[in-house]
Amino acid sequence: MSEIRYVRGDATTPTAKGVKVIAHVCNDLGGWGKGFVLAVSRRWPEPEAAYRAWHRDRAANDFALGAVQFVQVEPYVWVANMIGRHGMRRGSKGVPLRYEALGTALGRLAGGAADLDASVHMPRMGCGLAGGTWSRVEPLITERLTGRGIPVTVYDHGDTA
Questions:
Q1: Residue 141: phi, psi to the nearest 5?
Q2: CA 68/CA 102 separation, integer angstroms
Q3: How confident is the model at residue 160 (pLDDT cuts 50, 70, 90)?
Q4: Are strands 68-74 and 77-85 parallel, antiparallel or unpaired?
Q5: Tell me: the pLDDT tens digits for 76-108?
C-alpha cells in the first residue's frame, strides 16, 4: 500500500510520468464556476462542457451523487468530474460535501485509474467550497485509492497547507 504524496503546486499541471487523472469534486446542481474548476477551465474547455452536458441529460444517464465522469483532455491526461456535493451552500443540512458520495466516487475513480494504469492528482478536494474536512477526506482517499495501489498526489497551492 502506498501513501498519499503531498506537494506544493498546481494540480492542473501534475508532476508525474505516464497517464494522469486529475480528480475534483463537483456539485449535483449543474453549477460550474467557483473554486478548483476555474483552474481546470483555464487549461481545458472539455471538462466543463462534458459536465454541463452530463447534467443537462441527467434523466438519461448516471448523473447523481457518487457518479464519476472521465474526460480526456490531453493524450495522457484525463479529468475526473466526481459528484460529491449536494447543493452549493452551507445550510441547515450542513456542508455541501457528502462523504458517502465522495467515497463511492473515489471507488469508481480507482477503477477508472486502474483501467488507465494512471496516477491520480488532486487538490485537497472537498475541503474548500464544499466545506469538508481533510481529516475525513484523507482516510477515504487512503482506503479507496492508495489502499488499492493507485498512486495519489495531493497539491497544496500557494502558501496554504
A1: -65, -45
A2: 10
A3: very low
A4: antiparallel
A5: 999 999 999 997 666 656 789 999 999 999 999
Residue in this structure with the C-alpha cell 449535483, named with its chain if needed:
28
pLDDT digits (tens, 9 = 90+) for 16-49: 999 999 999 999 999 998 889 999 999 999 999 9
* Cell numbers describing residue 126: 472537498
Residue 87 near residue 96, CB atoms below 8 Å: yes
Helix (H, G, I), strand (E, B) or coil at 133: coil
| C-alpha R_g of the chain | 14
CA dihedral 136, 36, 53, 153 (to 10 degrees): -60
C-alpha cell at 32: 460550474
- pTM over cut 0.70: yes
d(CA 20, CA 138): 19
52, three cell numbers: 454541463
